[in-house]
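Q: What would this complex look like in 3D?
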Amino acid sequence: MKRKKPLIIILLVILTIAFLALLQALLMPKFQTQLLEGGLIADYYQEQNKDHDVIFIGDCEVYEDFSPITLWEQYGITSYIRGSAQQLIWHSYYILEDTLRYETPDVVVFNILSMKYDEPQNEAYNRMALDAMPLSGTKLRAIKASMTEGEEWLSYIFPLLRYHSRWHELSAEDFEFLFRRNPVSHNGYLMRVDVKPVTSIPTPRPLPDYQFSDICYEYLDKITDLCRTNDVRLILIKAPSIYPYWYDQWDQQMVDYAARNDLLYINTLQHLEEIGIDYDTDTYDAGLHMNLSGAEKMSVYFGRILAEEYGLADRRGDDLLAARWNEKAAAYYRQQADQYLELETYGYLRAFRYQSD
Amino acid sequence: MLFTSYSFILFLAVLFVLYYLVPRKIQWLLLLAANFVFYAFSGWDNLAFMLITILSIWLIGRHIGRLHQARDQYLAEHKADLNREQRKAYREAVKSRQLRWLLLALFINLGILAVLKYTNFVIANINTIRGWFAAGELSFVSLALPMGISFYIFQSVGYMIDVYRGKYPPEDNILRLALFVSFFPQLVQGPISRFDDLSQTLFQEHSFDGRTVTYGLQRILWGFFKKLVIADRILVGVNTIIRDPEHYTGIYVLVGMLFYAIQLYADFTGGIDITIGIAQTLGIKVKENFDRPYFSKSIAEFWRRWHITMGTWFRDYVFYPLSISRPMLKLAKKSRTRFGDAVGKRVTVYLSTLIVWFTTGLWHGASWNFIVWGLLNGVVIILSQELNPFYNWFHNRFSVRSSFFFRFFQITRTLLLMSSLRILDCYRDVGISFRQFFSIFTTWNIRELVGGQLLNIGLSVADYLVLAFGVALMILVSLRQRRGSLRDALQERPAPLRYALTIAAVIVVLVVGAYGIGYDSTQFIYNQF
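A: Here is my prediction, written as C-alpha cells for the whole assembly.
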C-alpha cells in the first residue's frame, strides 16, 4: 500500500489538472457562430502548412480588406492575414514575432492605422489578439505590453481565471466545439458579402496634436528591425476606410518614415480609382470596412504590386500547393454562396447580426 | 496586497516553501522579513509608522519591566526594614512612575492613530461650527491611513497595558516584538491578538505537519469561498441599493440591510478564516474572532460572539479600567447616595458602557455615523438590561424559553436589530440612514419585489442561486460546528474522498467566485478600520 501511495497521489494530481484543463476549455469563448473575429488568431495555429509568401498584420483593415484566395487565384501568391479586432501596434509586433517562429515570408504587410493608438484600449481586444497564442516568451512580453488597468497577467496564462464567470452563459456552442473548432476565416480573411453603401463623408475634427506617439514609433521601429533581421521586406499600407479619418498630417509622418527606412508605403485612399473601389457596393458598413467585393478589388490591386514590384513568384504550378489552395478556394466559394443565400433568406448575415442591429 | 490577489497567493506560496525549508531556528526571522515585505507593498512610508510603534513599545515596555524588577528587588531586600504602609507607599510611587511611562507610550501610539485617522474629522466638525458663525473653512490635510494601523496599534497598546499591569514581562528582543506587532495575516483586519496568546506559537520552531497544514489550507479555502463567492457577489446588490437612496426606499432598504448582513458576515469571517488558516499552515495559533454570531439571542450575546478580540480588548483595556477609575468610583458613591443602591450602582456601569461604545464607534471610523452606531449599540444593550425584569416576568409566566420557535424569534430579532443599526454603516450619513430606515415603515412598495425588480439591482438569477447555495452552506456549516470540528470529521473520511471534496471546493471558488474583470472584487470591509 505504501508503495502505491505516491502513484495514487500522482494519478490524482494528473486527474485534477486534466479536469481543470477541460473546464478551462469549456469556459473559454469559442467564437464559432458569433463574434467570429475572436477566432482569427486561433485559425493560424490550426493551419497545417505555415509557408506563406506574404503575411499581413494589423486590425480589421487587413482581415476584412484583403482576400488571400484572390491573391492566389490571380497571382499564385500564398498569403495569410494575421489580423485581429483593433490589433494595436504592440499586438502586431508580437504577433509578427510569433509568426516568424513558424515561417519566414518574403513580405510582411503592416496596416498602420494602429499608429493612432498609444495605449491599451480594451481588454476584449487584448484577449482576441493574445488568448489563442501558444505560451512562449513572445506571448509573455505581449501580455505585459498589452494589459489594461485591472488586468492580471496570470489570467492570460490560465484563462480559466478570466472566463470562469461564463459558467452561467454556456451555450450549445461551448459543448459542440469543446474538442474541435472550425476555421472562421479564409487564411485570416473574414468574409462578408453584405453591402451598406457610404451615405455621408465625415468632416474631420481638428486634433490638438497630430504627432504619433513615441511608443508607436518604437514598435514600428521594432517591426522594421524584425523584418530586416529576418530578411523580410516590409510594406506599410493604409486601407481605404473612410472612418476613422486618416489625417494628412498622419499620412505625411508615414511617408517620411517610409522614406527614412527605405520602405514602400501605400495609402490606398489615394488610389481608389486605380483599385476600383466603389463605396456604394464595396463596403458592408458605410465605409469602415470592405466587403467581399472591396477585398477582392484590393487584393487584385495589391497582388500586382507584389508580383511586379516585389517579384513574388506565381506558385500555381506547384501541384501540391495548388491542390491545397483549391481546397481553400472551394471553402471560400461555399461560404460566399452560403452568405448570399442567408442574405436572401434573412436579409442579414446571422453571424454578424449583433453588428447589424 | 489584497488577500484575494494573485500576487498575495504567490507571496504566500513562496513564504510557505521557504518557511519549511529554512532551519527551524530562523523561521520566525523569515516570518518577520515576510511581514515587512507584505507591509511595504502598502507603501514604504507606512512602515515608518509601524517602526515608531515597535520601537516605542519596546523601549518603554523594557523600562516599565525594569521598574517592576527594581521594585521587587528593593522590596525583597528591604522586607525586614519596611512596614506594610511603607511597602504600599513604595509600590504606589513605582506604579506612578510606570504609569507616566505607560501614558507616554499611549500618547505616542494613540497619538499617531488619532492624528492620522481623526484630524480631518476634527477639521470637518470645526468647519461646521465655524459655518454657523459665517467664519471661513479650515483646509483638510492630506493624510493616508496606513493599512491595519488600528489593529496593530490596539495590539501594541494591549501589550503595553499588560506589561504595566505585570501580566507578563516585557519582550527583550525587539525583533520578536516586531514580529508580534507586524504579523502579516492579522494586519488586514485583525484579529487583535494578545502577546501572551500569540507568542506561545509565534516564536516556536515548527516542523511540517501534514494535518495542521491541511487544516490551515481548508480554512483558507473556506475563507475564499465566503469572500469571493458570497461577499463580493452580493456586494453589487448592496451597493446598488445604498448608492441611490432616493430611488431605493422602503422594502429595498430592508433587502439592503439583510444583504449587507450577509455581505459583512461573509466578508469579515471569510477574511478571518483566511488569516487563521494562513497562521495555521505556518504552525501558529491565532485566536478565533467569531463564534457563530448570527445565532445570538441578544445584542449583548452577539457582541460576545462577533469580533470577539475587539470586544474583549475594549472590555479589558477600556471598560474595566474606566469602571474602577477614581472619578467613576466617586460618581458611583454620589449616585448611590442620591438615587439609592439599585439605581446608583447602574449609573457608572451604564456610563462606562456608553463611553466604551462611543470609542468602539470612533474606532470603526472617523465619522458621526460610526459614533451614532456605537452609541446606539450601547443604548440597546442598556435597554435590554433594563428590560430584564420584564423578560424574567415573561419567562416565569410563559415557559417558552426552550421552545424552538421562541429561540428562532430571538435570533431573528437580534439579526434584524443588528442589521438596523448597521444601516449607519451602509449609508455613512446619519440623516440618510434614519430617513431610509423609517422609509421601511412608510413606503409600501413590497409589490415591486414580486415584479422582479430584484433582478435590476445588478444580480442575475444565477447570482441569486449561487447566493442561496452559499448562504445555505454557511448556515449548515455553522449548525454542524455545534457538534464539533467539521475538519476533524472530514479527516476521518477516506483520503480520496477528502481530496475530491477539497478539489471540488477549489473549483467552486475558481469558477463561481466573483473576481477578475467584470467583478468589483474589493478589499475586505474591516480593512478600512
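A: To summarize the key features: The mean pLDDT of chain B is 91. Chain B touches chain A at residues 6, 460, 462, 496, 499, 503, 507, 510-519 (CB under 8 Å).
Q: Very helpful, thank you.
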